[in-house]
Write a structure and sequence with these properties.
Largest sheet of chain A: 4 strands, parallel
Shape of chain A: globular
Mean pLDDT of chain A: 95
Mean pLDDT of chain C: 94
Largest sheet of chain C: 7 strands, mixed
Shape of chain C: globular
Strand content of chain A: 5-15%
Number of helices of chain A: 19
Order of helices and strands of chain A: HHHHEHHEHEHEHHEEEEHEHHEHHHHHH
Bound molecules: flavin mononucleotide, iron/sulfur cluster, FE2/S2 (inorganic) cluster
Helix content of chain A: 40-55%
Strand order of the largest sheet of chain C: 15-14-27-26-25-16-17
Number of strands of chain C: 36
Number of strands of chain A: 10
Chains: A alpha/beta (427), B alpha+beta (207), C alpha/beta (809)
Radius of gyration of chain A: 22 Å
Oligomer: heterotrimer
Largest interface: A-B, 69 and 65 residues
Helix content of chain C: 25-40%
Strand order of the largest sheet of chain A: 3-2-1-4
Low-confidence stretches of chain A: none
Chain lengths: 427, 207, 809
């Protein structure tokens, strides 16, 4: 984990540690050179989908104006890495923003920060003000004739606005409902129907380093198929929760037991969620020694997603955990798609019944069938019946119940209550 | 014709000027409307509709989509307690119950004095410092049920004009997701995020 | 790009237009993919997810919604396999989970796509044992529409309609997720002139119309297709009746005109047909009182009097006003009756529609409604289309909003299209000619530029009475001079006015858009015999003639000049002094109450025939039941009178009349009933061809200069008023604004007028008390008074006005 000096968010400190060196270089490069560099580096998006950033940029349609939106809506349960980048390193993100803007011929960029992050937003705004004062932003940046305006836009409590097309609708003053695909990328038609690049805070923040190191050096960081380091947010029953910048390729055992200091109170590990609340769960008997890379994870039927790891110990009631996660998605469903709107709430209601001892023997099969209607075949990545992956994400805990915890579900039904003793929280 | 004060109208104009299209200003203007009245009233939505030239129904369609636009009267302090998965694992529900019990205000309601509103919310992005609580969106991490009771008592008793994340963290918090750096004297003065100029001053010792 | 692509649907090859949505292509190729949210006339939202199908993708089979994905060459689609079935069954089960089980008492029962789908694809018993979503039962979203949110399946058809089609987004999705609901802003109802369309397109029984809630069950309806005459575009409708009672009108998708949409007036205005006040028996004036008489008595009286006057004074002593409410066949009979029986050209179907008859009937190049879609610029300088020409309004809005046409609107105040106008000019009432000069002199370069760009459609009509009737034609002339390719649509607003003019119901027109002169009269001699060759009097001059005594006998056919003329004094006085008044009508009205004989006519939906719309499109209208009591169609009444005066018309039945029309009006050749019923379901446009039609080229005319006055009066029609048909339509009549005067907030302050308080409005031609509406859409210095309202006095056409606040009672 990077150790932050207390004033890491100030422009003085940032400049003193080599900040804002890269934009002038970017301004001297052509769009093609920049896009190629990012492509070659292998940098993949850190917002959840893990799509190649350079490739995405190359899709930018020719019509102008083009826009850039930095996705700082971070709301997936378990995820809190972007908050740290915004709060402690806002200039790093701004520098990345300038590079991205220049590479994509953008003259107006937006930073969409979730409404529940006022302090990060204040830090970012203060950083923007300082950057404007030094003419790193605004009219004629870095002594060139390139203009770049930045507007901070606060969300107002809707996880779905993290989905890039919903985010764009939200920014246009509409309901935060994801748009129809195709077009698959806002780079074709995005904000105000103009070409738009949407990138995650962490992706953007990697750019100054990428440009400084060069594509080649950057691609040698981490795992060959999954370059660069990435930030993982660990939470739940571990001794040292927090954000850790790790290289791809270490194992789950290393992450949970070494990096995060093991399970609180030396309890047994029961399960963990490898990539934010959307991801299907892992259990120690199967997955503990697997490598942390996109591909290995995908093969095992889950994903690294937003990089959030939620760890559950032996005292965790899986019905309750599942209910919390499904409840989240039901609460956050935008409501457009019938399967997501109706299905997630249905699942939540059944789980609540099971949790309160009113489960029926057929309920697990019913939930699986309902889930099947949202995500046909219950595969990962899902075969969606919906516009966006939110609905299908809600069935991940149900897959876990089916694969690993059938017995515990049935005990709930048979006993008419939770079979586990309610354990003390270990501080 | 606007019902807003000249100063608020100036802020509205400034907000609109940040966007290529007027309608994009709906969300910040809704915060501005909340700041005028402490919650989002029908008049507030009509006012926003006039500013961005859409119908009030279109504004309400947006306002009602998001959880942070409070269309009911809201207390001076909005206490939001996270009960999402990571906080739940570390006792978020107990913290919620402690807050409800100490304040006498159940989820989604406001006390008679108009001082406290209590709600449980989904993930606040503070999972590393679970359980987390926000007061007027200013964050406190590592809250225990006992500390939560202290927090409620403090809000009811001291009734701070400005709530400030660093101060509350020191008084009522524990484990944090990460180190936040130096303390800052900026905070919220109402149940909406303290961010200029979305309808909040939120400063103490700031210009 | 080629003209078509080849796709495979369930193993069958289908040809489709590139860019077409898969759901439509499949449907046209014979494969119905189930759907709820998709609607052919609106942008897809892909929300219900019912239309999921599987297509072969680069990485194996892919589930996509057929309503949001355009066809592509070589696309291979499976709409039947297990995955698709599973998805469709799941969507249905999800939709039904929270849907109430009240089909037996639901208006939609029997014609509900959800019910039908549930029968054919559904799971049978619900596995949803949780508590259903609960909403307050039907809430009013407007005066005409109720919403049951428990039945709603959130297909966004109604919300899309209000946003994309009608342009009044007052009904929206509120909240989100599982508690999403459709609703209005509190106390701001969905008071759209088009609200009824949402009821028609709601795929379930969530939206219902007050005028026909619980009235009928779909299975005992008889149906017939027709065209509504409330609006001169003649939108296509289907009339539904049960046991000889008309219950509802449904919009029919006609490519050429209404795309299935109807204004609420077209949809609910039918109530007058069933009014208890319909005339059911001939009435004759006996000692100052109208008493019932037999047809024989009444016809004898009328015929005798006509013969008497004809013998004494000849045709100059007769006048005929009206004839625009019936069919072309009726109008033709009236036209022939006037010339042959009354020996007069004093005949006019225009009552309040004052544009020159040749301009209205025979302008070249006349625009088709479909020309709006591929125009570069549309100029609207005329009435507020939203108020007076709802079908055109929707088409112009669509062209501007969805098809990228540049819209120019010129009007004395705000109009319903302003939000889509690229350029909007506002002018003081009476200042139309001055503005036109300015434009001609290049003072509005944006407008001039738009008018010179490519294809232009100029929709012109009377925006404001103070400008006089000649402005519209001068505007058309200007557009003609500027644009390379201009098409003109001159506007008149009465029912079948264009058909009536085509049949010769104007003092200077003969059937087939021929002029009244020796040559053309001679051409008609074979069928009509000898007829007067000098043009006659128009409506105004007929009324003046009555006052002078030059005109002794007036025949009023479905007309109410006292109510319909902007300055009714001439009508009041003329009718007062008329020696003899014969009326043919559905109702007693302010003009015919003093008639000597009133003959009950059968009306719309009670007789067959053809009608001609604003673009010259002829469509068939049909009868679903006979008229009430002893009422009879106009043509039959006229034929009987003619017979009794010894000048038979030789007209025996409407289809025979239509054949005679085709003979004497060559443009109507080939427009037979058979053709309209079978080949030309969208109607047939009668071209300006054959001989001897007029090819009228609009000319720039001189007009009034604006008078100088601090406050100017603008009087215009609104959708709902106190016209006789609306008065008999209980659902709509209360929606009329009443006696109100709109003024700008600035003027309100000057006058010290408060909203709702009375003001006294005085003009040279009238005065009255009106209640104030503060309205930013009315410019400062202008007072806007809706025409013909309950308790509203007529103020005439002169724009100079004095207004003073009256102490509120
Ligand atoms: C339901 C949903 C929620 C999402 N939330 C976020 C988010 O909070 N932050 C984020 O950066 N990306 C989020 N994404 C991913 C974005 O859609 C998008 O892929 C990402 O911002 C692209 O940036 P990247 O390429 O830099 O990762 C979400 C996606 C979905 C489907
Ligand atoms: S899947 Fe859910 S959240 Fe995503 S668009 Fe559909 S309804 Fe909205
Ligand atoms: S018809 Fe395609 S999603 Fe509704």
């Amino acid at each position: 984990m990077i150790d932050h000096p207390t004033d890491s968010h100030t422009i003085e400190r940032y400049e003193a540690t080599g900040g804002y060196q890269q934009p002038p270089r970017a301004l001297g490069m052509t769009r093609d050179e920049l896009v190629e560099t990012v492509k070659d580096s292998g940098l993949a998006g850190r917002g959840g989908a893990g799509f190649s950033t350079g490739l995405k940029w190359s899709f930018l349609a020719p019509s102008r104006p083009a826009y850039l939106v930095v996705n700082a809506d971070e709301s997936e349960p378990g995820t809190f890495k972007d908050r740290q980048l915004l709060e402690r390193d806002p200039h790093q993100m701004l520098e990345g923003l300038i590079i991205t803007g220049v590479a994509n011929e953008v003259h107006h960029a937006f930073i969409y920060i979730r409404g529940e992050y006022p302090k990060p937003a204040r830090r970012v705004q203060a950083a923007i003000d300082d950057a404007y004062a030094r003419r790193y932003l605004g009219k004629g940046i870095f002594g060139t004739d390139y203009d770049l305006e930045v507007t901070v836009h606060l969300g107002a409590g809707a996880y779905i606005c993290g989905e890039e097309t919903a985010l764009i609708n939200s920014l246009e003053g509409l309901r935060g409902e994801p748009r129809l695909k195709p077009p698959y990328f806002p780079a074709a038609k995005g904000l105000y129907m103009q070409p738009t690049i949407v990138n995650n805070v962490e992706t953007i923040s990697a750019l100054p380093h990428l440009l400084e190191m060069g594509a080649e050096a950057f691609s040698r960081l981490g795992h060959p198929l999954d370059t660069g380091t990435f930030m993982t947010s660990i939470s739940g029953h571990v001794n040292h929760p927090g954000n850790y910048e790790i290289p791809h390729g270490i194992t789950w055992r290393q992450l949970i037991y070494e990096v995060a200091g093991g399970i609180r109170g030396d309890r047994e590990l029961k399960a963990w969620i490898p990539g934010g609340a959307s991801a299907p769960w892992f259990v120690p008997a199967v997955h503990l020694d697997q490598q942390i890379t996109k591909d290995v994870c995908a093969e095992a039927g889950s994903m690294l997603g937003s990089g959030a790891v939620i760890v559950m110990d032996e005292t965790t009631c899986v019905i309750r955990a599942a209910e919390r996660i499904v409840r989240f998605f039901a609460h956050e469903s935008c409501g457009q798609c019938t399967p997501c709107r109706e299905g997630t709430t249905w699942l939540e209601m059944v789980l609540r019944r099971l949790e309160t001892g009113q489960g029926r023997p057929i309920d697990l099969d019913l939930m699986l069938d309902v889930s099947d209607g949202i995500s046909i075949g219950l595969a990962w990545p899902p075969r969606m019946t919906t516009i966006c992956p939110l609905g299908p994400s809600a069935v991940s805990p149900i897959i876990a119940l089916r694969d690993f915890f059938r017995k515990e579900v049935m005990e709930h039904v048979e006993l008419g209550r939770c079979p586990l003793e309610r354990a003390e929280v270990v501080a | 014709m606007s019902h807003w004060s000249e100063a608020t109208q100036d802020r509205a104009r400034e907000i609109i000027s940040r966007y290529p299209k007027k309608r994009s200003a709906v969300m910040p203007l809704l915060y501005l409307a909340m700041a005028e009245e402490g919650h989002l009233s029908s008049e507030g939505m009509e006012e926003v509709a006039r500013w961005v030239e859409v119908t009030p129904a279109q504004v309400q369609a947006v306002a009602s989509f998001y959880t942070m636009y409070k269309r009911e009267r809201t207390g001076r302090y909005l206490i939001s307690c996270c009960t999402s998965i990571s906080c739940m694992l570390l006792g978020g529900d107990d913290v919620l119950h402690a807050i409800e019990d100490e304040s006498g205000v159940p989820h989604g309601e406001t006390d008679e004095k108009g001082l406290l509103t209590v709600e449980h919310v989904e993930c606040l992005g503070a999972c590393g410092g679970a359980p987390a609580v926000q007061v007027n969106y200013e964050l406190i991490e590592g809250v225990t049920p006992d500390r939560a009771r202290d927090l409620v008592r403090w809000l009811s008793g001291a009734r701070p004009a400005v709530v400030n994340t660093d101060e509350m963290q020191e008084l009522f918090g524990g484990v944090r997701s990460f180190d936040w750096g130096p303390k800052e004297g900026v905070g919220a003065i109402g149940p909406y995020p303290a961010f200029q100029p979305l309808g909040t001053v939120g400063s103490e010792g700031l210009p | 790009m080629s003209d078509s692509v080849l796709i495979t649907v369930d193993g069958k090859q289908i040809e489709a237009a590139p860019g077409e949505m898969l759901i439509k292509a499949a449907q046209d190729g014979g494969t119905y993919i189930p759907r709820f949210c998709w609607h052919e006339r609106m942008n897809p939202v892909g929300m219900c997810r019912m239309c999921l199908v599987e297509v072969d993708g680069p990485r194996g089979p892919m589930m996509i919604t057929a309503c949001t994905n355009p066809v592509a060459e070589g696309m291979v689609v499976d709409t039947q396999n297990d995955t698709v079935k599973k998805a469709q069954e799941a969507v249905l089960e999800f939709l039904l989970a929270n849907h109430p089980l009240d089909c037996p008492i639901c208006d939609k029962g029997g014609e509900c796509p959800l019910q039908d789908q549930a029968m054919s694809h559904g799971p049978g018993e619900s596995r949803f044992v949780e508590i259903k979503r609960n909403f307050e039962k039907p809430i009013s979203v407007s005066d005409l529409v109720l919403l049951d949110r428990e039945r709603c399946i959130l297909c966004a058809r109604c919300t899309r309609f209000s946003e994309e089609i009608s342009g009044d987004p007052l009904i929206e999705f509120m909240e989100r997720g599982n508690v999403t609901e459709v609703n209005t802003f509190p106390e701001l109802p969905f008071s759209s002139y088009f609200s009824g369309n949402t009821v028609q397109i709601c795929p379930v029984g969530a939206l219902t119309a007050r005028p026909y809630r619980f009235r009928a069950r779909p299975w005992d309806l008889t149906k017939v297709e027709s065209s509504s005459l409330y609006d001169t575009a003649h939108p296509r409708i289907s009339i539904h009746a049960s046991q000889n009672q008309i219950l509802r009108f449904i919009g029919v998708d006609n490519d050429a005109t209404n795309h299935g949409w109807l204004s609420d007036k077209d949809r609910f205005g039918f109530q007058y047909i069933e009014s208890k006040e319909r005339l059911t028996s001939p009435l004759v004036n006996r000692g100052g009182e109208l008493v019932e008489a037999t047809w024989n008595e009444a016809l004898d009286i009328v015929a005798n009097r006509i013969e008497l006057i004809r013998d004494e004074d000849g045709g100059g002593a007769f006048g005929v006003i009206g004839g625009a409410r019936g069919t072309n066949e009726d109008a033709y009979a009236l036209s022939k009756f006037a010339r042959v029986v009354l020996e007069t050209n004093n005949v006019d179907a225009r009552v309040g529609d004052d544009l020159a008859s040749h301009f209205l009937a025979a302008t070249v190049d006349r625009a088709l409604i479909s020309d709006l879609d591929d125009a570069d610029t549309i100029l609207v300088w005329g009435p507020d289309l939203k108020e007076e020409h709802p079908t055109l309004y929707l088409r112009v809005r669509r062209a501007a909003q969805e098809l990228g046409v540049t819209l120019v609107v010129i009007h004395p105040r705000a109009t319903g299209l302003d939000d889509r106008a690229a350029h909007k000019l506002t002018y003081r009432p009476g200042g139309g000619f001055a503005l036109l000069d300015d434009i001609a002199q290049g003072e509005h370069p944006d407008v001039s530029h738009a008018l010179t760009a490519g294809k232009v459609v100029a929709i012109v009509g009377q925006a404001c009475h103070a400008d006089g009737p000649k402005l519209a034609e001068s505007v058309a002339a200007l557009a003609r001079n500027k644009a390379g390719a201009v098409k003109i649509m001159p506007l008149a607003r009465r029912a079948n006015i264009y058909g009536a003019l085509d049949m010769g119901l104007a003092p200077d027109l003969l059937p087939g858009r021929a002029a009244v002169d020796a040559i053309h009269c001679a051409n008609l001699a074979a069928t009509w015999g000898e007829i007067p060759t000098v043009p006659g009097r128009d409506t105004r001059r007929i009324l003046e003639g009555l006052e002078d005594g030059d005109v002794r006998c007036l025949v009023l056919v479905g007309a109410d000049p006292v109510r319909d003329l902007p300055d009714p004094r001439v009508a009041v006085e003329g009718l007062d002094t008329a020696e003899y008044l014969i009326a043919i009508d559905l109702f007693l009205n302010d003009s015919n109450r003093s008639a000597d004989v009133i003959l009950p006519a059968s009306g719309f939906a009670e007789k067959e025939g053809t009608v001609t719309n604003v673009e010259g499109r002829v469509q068939k209208v049909n009868a679903i039941r006979p008229g009430p009591g002893q009422s009879r169609p106009d043509w039959a009444i006229l034929a009987d009178i003619a017979e009794r005066t010894g000048r038979p018309l030789g007209l025996a039945a409407p289809d025979a009349i239509s054949k005679e029309i085709a003979e004497v009006a060559p443009a109507y050749t080939g427009v037979t009933w058979d053709h309209l019923e079978w080949e030309a379901r969208d109607g047939a446009v009668v071209p300006l061809s054959g001989s001897p039609p007029i090819h009228y080229i609009p000319v720039a005319l001189a007009g009034p200069r604006p008078p100088k006055a601090a406050l100017m009066l603008h009087v215009a029609r609104t959708m709902y008023d106190d016209g006789v048909l609306l008065r008999q339509s209980p659902s709509l009549h209360p929606l009329a604004p009443g006696a109100v005067a709109h003024i700008n907030p600035i003027d309100a302050r000057k006058l010290g007028a408060q909203p709702g308080h009375p003001v006294q409005v005085v003009t040279k031609q009238g005065e009255g008390e009106f209640s104030v509406v503060i309205d930013e859409g009315t410019p400062a210095g202008v007072i806007f008074v809706p025409f013909n309202q309950v308790a509203g006095s007529a103020l005439g056409t002169d724009p100079v006005v004095r207004v003073k606040a009256v102490a509120a009672k």
